[in-house]
Design goal:
Length: 153
């Protein structure tokens, strides 16, 4: 009997919109895969790229960042920062040997519980198709260590 692969997905959700959307999905009894681990952040713009790299380094198969719709950010422009970082992160992940499709940025408002549940189901399915995240090769671990140490300076 084969064991079914269930990807480990980490979700960074904005406190004001996306987390409330996840809560709305729960109170509306919308089902979504239970293998997402939600981390509540004040704003999607506060998600440091190093957090995402660390997630992959610690064995996550996918990372979802969800924030307020552009123009609706409670911190005025946090989601614009998030969008810029997301573009750069794709290049960094490729450099580290991690498939960029394992990272996703979406906008979910507090009233979009159904959208949130569909998003999590679809993202989890797409990560499952990619298969388990392979161990970061030694060469890439060194690149990652350099990136982390430069960040601490």
């Amino acid at each position: 009997m084969a064991i079914e692969y269930k990807p480990k997905v980490i979700g960074f959700l904005c406190n004001w919109c996306s987390y409330a959307g996840a809560d709305s999905a729960g109170t509306s009894r919308k089902h979504y895969p239970p293998n997402i681990r939600i981390i509540r952040v004040p704003c999607s713009g506060r998600v440091d790229p190093l957090f995402i790299v660390k997630c992959f380094q610690q064995g996550a198969d996918g990372v979802l960042i969800a924030g307020c719709h552009p123009g609706d950010c409670h911190y005025t422009e946090g989601n614009f920062y998030s969008r810029r970082r997301f573009a750069l992160l794709h290049e960094l992940l490729s450099f580290l040997g991690i498939t960029p499709e394992r990272l996703r940025l979406e906008w979910v408002s507090a009233a979009e519980g159904k959208k949130f549940s569909e998003l999590v189901a679809e993202f989890t399915a797409s990560v499952a198709e990619l298969g388990p995240q392979k161990e970061v090769e030694n060469e890439n671990r060194e690149k990652l260590a350099i990136t982390s140490s430069e960040r601490e300076v």
